[in-house]
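Holo model, HC0. Inputs:
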Amino acid sequence: MVRLTIDGIAVEVQEGTKILDAAAQAGIKIPTLCFLKDINEIGACRVCVVEVEGCDQLVAACNNVVEEGMVIHTNSPKVRETRRVNVELILSQHDCRCATCVRSGNCELQTISNDLGIIDLPYNQKFKKKPWNKDFPLIRDSSKCIKCMRCVQVCENVQNTRIWEVGNTGSRTDVVVSLNRKIEESDCALCGQCITHCPVGALRERDDVDKVFDALADPEKITVVQVAPAVRAAWGESLGLEREAATVKRLVAALRKMGFNYIFDTTFSADLTIMEEGSEFVEKLKNKENNKFPMFTSCCPGWVRYMKSHYPDMVDLLSTSKSPQQMFGAITKSYYAELLDVSPDKIYSISIMPCIAKKHECDIPTINDTEADKDVDVVITTREVDRMIRAEHIDVANLEEEEFDMPLGVGTGAGVIFGATGGVMEAALRSAYYLVTGENPDPDAFKEVRGMDGWKESQIEINGTVVKTAVTSGLKNTDKLIQAIRNGEVEYDFVEVMACPGGCSGGGGQPIHLGQTSNRVDNLYKLDKEANLRFSHENPSIVKVYEDYLGAPMSEKAHKLLHTDHES
Ligand code: HC0
Ligand code: SF4
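Output:
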């Protein structure tokens, strides 16, 4: 153990502890800006500097370890003044027009500047605005970048993708798309983790809110909106709502107030995905010798993009089932258009997702299989729907809860847990067990696949057949798993991959509050536990859509509408 004094408090911590962590253990908060625990500990911004007695220079608290007998001052006049100058210099290179910034109110630079009492900009502002493809789902504004390197590190060290790199040196240092590429030429998976880890407004999603407002104002359009599983666990965070108050039914009430004609639940089509993907898997298993394994889930478009660019020779291992978002779009513009007795082109289909990659998925040419132009017309993120709610001045806290519309508003607990890592696998196993044995398992029988670990394994016996499964989230974890499969170190029958750590709950379109993913995941499992229906095959709307329209899972019609070959 190491003994030291921080701000007059005697502290005893383990050897190797960083000054920042030692201070936190003593209840002292040192401000940080570029720091991200275990991801970016480079001390670049110099906001966390502290004074160590006997040291001429101030030291960064995030990447210097404690030493026996140290006497540290975290907020002395010298520290305060240095921090202030450091932040003023950062501001001199940052476009400080906060009023029009997407991160205003949730910006770490804004908070630190305010906390340090900076109420004027003493240096001339010099910032660069570089051209960017505004049609791409991920938008970068170079004039907001503070070169903290968080995006570079998250992309490389968590997502194994290396889209960003440092260009130039000295005062011209910049973050650029690597290998001199344009973003649209790069292999960006569109997971959006760089956005959620950016402390400022340098990275954001393409804003599609106006398209939705235009559709709502167009009397010729019937607006049909779907709400993804993980959105319900997070939408209240940026509206200041307590988790208990931010129910999905309250979100439904807000959407109805905004004027959406039909408000449905993506958990319905998550259940539909289970019917198709579960049946596809069971069919493959029946003829094991003639099929290649493992079968990979295909519902995460970030993962599908990653596989296409990094492992193109393995694309045929992806399940052909479309994602719930796209199944929903296809059902909306076929079955539901028929129920409404309108042409599919009259329907404008909107999807609220925790995800950036979904904005790309709905534009993949071969994903659209109905008579309409596009099965899903526009995708907005959880952050964008929150902005719409604010723009409409809806007092969500005082809204009465309302129900989804019918029949596509019914989902099971199995569909809800799609938004958590392991959830798709667990939901699939619940129904696969039923499809093989004709009996339901205990709904909690496959709990092993829950939890935030990056790579989880389980073996499950169904009617004498042992099924080996794995679940992974985060693309670096995924890469390790694929390498192990390719090297013959592991063998699985069924693998779930989600690009974002923790699954969609930690998606790149979610409100930006780092450290919230596991709370969101817990919330989804709680909703599953409390649900009346916990098996996808028991969803009455699913039973009906097969009876009245699709016939059976994997039928010709189901194939046409609900499956894809992942070719483009
Ligand atoms: Fe997901 Fe999905 S679970 S990818 O994370 O499968 O975005 O929430 O909507 O489509 O259902 C995202 C979340 C979805 C889809 C579902 C799947
Ligand atoms: Fe999108 Fe979810 Fe995949 Fe992340 S894990 S890229 S949020 S689908």
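The mean pLDDT is 95. The first strand starts at residue 2 and ends at 6.
Archived with the compound record.
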